[in-house]
Amino acid sequence: MLIRVLWRIDPSRDEPLYAQLAAQAHLAVARGDLAVGDRLPAARELAESLDLNVHTVLKAYQQLRDEGVIELRRGRGAVVAARAAADLSPVVEALAPLVEAARAANISTEVLTVLVKEAMNR
Length: 122
What we know:
The chain is mainly α. It is 52% helix and 7% strand. The chain is globular, with a radius of gyration of 15 Å. The termini are far apart. The mean pLDDT is 88. One of its GO terms (molecular function) is DNA-binding transcription factor activity. Pfam families: GntR. InterPro entries: Tscrpt_reg_HTH_GntR, WH-like_DNA-bd_sf, WH_DNA-bd_sf.
């Protein structure tokens, strides 16, 4: 079953396009828009619909595979892996006060993203 997730990219952002796609897949899994066993669009199909190079989509899919979010299966394409179904509710709950504090401090999304990435790399 092919699940249609609304994929959006913003070429003006500093974040690479493949990373934007991978982040959206993570978000779709966290929200329940993608479930274990769901198929992602074929790389060529997604690339054409977003006017991207197919290698950009393949790089996103490879990153998702390396992170255990998807399995790449010959003949079946990219399928959401069982490991992707981790319970993210504690993380989602922790985000609310973080976002509130960032808004109160007038911190942009980009700066907050950098701060979170730095914290994750410690």
